[in-house]
Model the fold of this input.
Amino acid sequence: MSAHSATEQPLLRLCGIHKRFGDNHVLRGVDLELAAREVVCLIGPSGSGKTTLLRCVNHLEVPTEGRAILQGELLGQYTRRGRLVSLPPRELAAQRAAIGMVFQHFNLFDHKTALENVTEAPIQVAGMSKHEARAIAGRLLESVGLAEKAHAYPRQLSGGQKQRVAIARALAMSPKLMLFDEPTSALDPEIVGEVLDVMRKLAHEGMTMLVATHEMTFARDVADRVVFMDGGVIVEQGPPSQVLTAPSHERTKRFLARLL
Amino acid sequence: MDDSASNSQALVPTLDGHVERRPKNTPAGVLLMVLKWMARAVVLVVMVDVVRILVTSKTIEWGTVAHYLTFGAILAGALTTLELTVAGMAIGIGIGVVLALMRLSPSTVMNAAASAYLWFFRGTPLLVQIIFLYNLASFIQRITVGIPFGGPTFFSWNTNSLITVTSAAVLALGLNQGAYMCEIVRAGILSVDEGQMEASLALGMTRRRAMRRIILPQAMPVVIPPTGNNAIALLKDSSLVSVISMKELLYQAQLIYSAQFNTIPLLVVVCIWYLAMTTVASVGQYYLERHFDRGSTRTPPPRFRTRFGRNLTSILRPGARMGSASDVAAAAQAGQRSGLGS
Ligand SMILES: Nc1ncnc2c1ncn2[C@@H]1O[C@H](COP(=O)(O)OP(=O)(O)OP(=O)(O)O)[C@@H](O)[C@H]1O
Ligand SMILES: [Mg+2]
Done:
């Protein structure tokens, strides 16, 4: 599935990302590249900075240092008189529209139906007609298996259904890249599967995905590459067969041992 | 209507879902029962007596009341009161939203400016603010718009021509209301989970659009009940502008009774009109609350009749629980208001 060759430009490039919250140095220089259509799983102990790294990609968190580049375009910043400065809000918003994000706690718009959740951004941000947006949203809800729940409000949906709506909502903007932040951690074990199935399908369709997860089975089956983070740095990375079954670092071994 | 509780025994869930324990046939239980019935009897006697005084009183002159109830000047005054309330609320909500956004902004300057506004308008009496604004001309002669410190002037008005009785009244009520609306709107915005803003931003919305489309609509269920209470309070407080001879309901009545010396009948007329308006406003608030509660809570608020009925029975039945959650919030709000000297 990994269609990346050495010459091809990566879809996403993170260079030397640092993030400090006051004295707390959370990310300590992260370099990561994702080829188009690649699925990368981010694993690591709690507090290792997985969420922070994902949020630095779409600038929900502004990196203290370093850059994120999507298809050659610098994210959230631009060069003015030789210095990097923050992008104006409008342009930052346009960049974010090209990156889908799925949250641990779904964050569906509670005052809107499932269908309205999906159509909101296409209509408001992309300027799509209501008619067209509804047609697309209908198809997306069908593809996540929720066609019959289109007119339900989030409070009427189960956790798994909410998360599938959230995935459809992110896909409605036809993103180039999807970020998942522990999409199944808030779900009951018996419901986890329905969300992972949707993600698996998405991976097969060729979506580029960066997934922070504790689901090792999903990582083993779906990921092209597994990245293990600890203490704000990438400790090791490689194909799942290598990182998950024969890790070369002591810290990775300890982390995996604790999971099993 | 929800009196099923009184027919059955022991633990009875009421409409609120809480369980009411009925006293058993112990001596203490019987004593409690007797005391409850005595309290009800006393309240009933007092109520009957109040009605008797109202009906038979010589000073009220019900004929005069009936005559003035639909008198032209009184109707015009009631209409003006309504207009003052609507205009004051409109200005207040506008200012309140702006102040709330200022208070939530990371900018220290914005924050300090909003706080200073709140400090002044909630820390001084509304009556003083009304008189102050009406006399603004003797304090600031001209109001100008331009570049300060010797820059060019774009517009300039004589304060005297700008501040009329009406504009002073409307502005004072609106500016004051803005300070109270700020806290209500701010509490509403803070009640919405942070994740809603993050999801909006991640989808490519600007903060402004997310605020308008996602955050503020979800703040509504929290904002509406206290706003309704404030509107009703403003409806009554608008009588204060009678001191600058704004021709609203109370001032019109004062004009009549100072000439005719029928003070009590006219004050009764005024009370009847205020009661009519506040009652209609309460019903309106109920339907507004119900409309904006869609999608935000699991259980819809009880129907108006049931809620009204419960509040009524809670007066007559010492055991029944008072009010609903929003009433409690409203009470807290009211307390905060009077505590800060409005
Ligand atoms: N907004 C913030 N302000 C201050 N500190 C923060 C903030 N967000 C994260 N942190 C800190 O950054 C560190 C890394 O947090 P992060 O959420 O990125 O870890 P994580 O790997 O996602 O962990 P988990 O598996 O528990 O989700 C933690 O110590 C956390 O306290
Ligand atoms: Mg996390």
Summary: The pocket of magnesium ion (ligand 2) is lined by residues A 50-51, 181-182 (CB under 6 Å).
